[in-house]
Amino acid sequence: MRPATTSGRTLGGPAAAALALLLAAAPARPQDRALVPGRMGYNALPAVPNEDPAVGDDVLVSLQLAAQAADLSARDAAATPYLRVEVPFRGIAALSVDAVPVELWRVTPATQRRLQAASTRGVELGDVRFGARFLLVSEAGLRPALGIRLLTKTASGKGLENRRFTAAPAYLGDLLLGKDLASWPGGARVRLLAKAGFLSWQQGDGWQDDGLDYGATLQLRSAGGARLELEWRGYTGYERDDEPMLAGLTAGVPTGPVEWVLTVNRGLRHEAPPWEVRAGAVLRLPSPWRAR
């Protein structure tokens, strides 16, 4: 945890414009060091899923419905649609935008008191994130593929008085690794993905929480394109209640250009949603900027 600064350097040109836009999107307000995942709603500061450094050739359009709950009784629960679009460029870069358009939520009076929320239920507008992923080193022989991912969360999320979203920007930079552990004719393979990086989010005017982002995924893919993934991810910050960690299992089955996806996540620390289920589809479209 430390004050948000620019290390005494003067920014100019596009960097100054980008910084001004972000600051304008996040109105100044007093420091709030309770803006941590363990004292916010389930979708406020989630651990970001792992990604492969290798960039594909298809435009990906994802639509999912997600539900989080404290237990089977769903006393503390949230539900939201999730949208994501990724556009690749020549197999070396991909730009993405994803959003939680709206969140429906409810909590018990005990959770309301713990979070210091104004209400026990409601509907809030969610966050929008913009990302870029770059392949730095292609996989070859024993050498893994390496890449970087940059992600910015805008201050679009509402409901700060109910502790649902932070109404402040966040930034993520990850080093990505991908390596086939085994492969067979026809395209079947076992692949390992890993990430390590730096995460930072604003906690009111002039203060931020910093954290180490981490994760790993073991991916099994059949010759027909079906996949099964076991994922572990999380991050560790410098405040209290800011170390969400979860494990998840994802199954994907393709039917033509559409892949049907089901994910079940289990929180391993109290800062992550205890249970999360995601179901939806990913549409693959040919990109005009395919790798040659």
Residue share in β-strands: over 45%
CATH homologous superfamily (4th level) name? monomeric porin ompg
The number of distinct helices, counting runs of at least 4 residues, comes to 2
Rg: 19 Å
**Low-pLDDT sequence parts:** 1-12, 14-28
Distance between the termini: 45 Å
SSE order, one letter for each helix or strand: HEEEEHEEEEEEEEEE
- The total strand number stands at 14
Shape: globular
Mean model confidence by pLDDT: 89
Number of domains: 1
CATH level-1 class: Mainly Beta
User: How are the strands of the biggest sheet laid out side by side?
Assistant: 1-2-3-6-7-8-9-10-11-12-13-14
Structural class: mainly beta
Biggest sheet record: 12 strands, antiparallel, barrel
> Any idea what the CATH architecture is?
Beta Barrel
Please name the CATH topology: Porin
Protein name: Transporter
Organism: Anaeromyxobacter paludicola
Keywords: Signal
Verbal overview:
- The chain is mainly beta.
- It has a single domain, classed as monomeric porin ompg (Porin, Beta Barrel).
- It is built from two helices and 14 strands.
- Strands 1-2-3-6-7-8-9-10-11-12-13-14 form a twelve-stranded antiparallel beta barrel.
- The N and C termini lie far apart (45 Å).
- 32% of the residues are buried.
Secondary structure topology:
Elements lengths: L12 H13 L32 E12 L7 E13 L3 E7 L2 E5 L2 H7 L5 E5 L2 E10 L7 E9 L16 E14 L5 E14 L5 E14 L5 E11 L7 E11 L2 E10 L7 E12 L6
Antiparallel strand pairs: 1-2, 1-14, 2-3, 2-4, 3-6, 4-5, 6-7, 7-8, 8-9, 9-10, 10-11, 11-12, 12-13, 13-14
Top keywords for this entry?
292 residues; mainly beta; Porin; twelve-stranded antiparallel β-barrel; 14 strands; 7% helix; globular; disordered N terminus; signal; Transporter
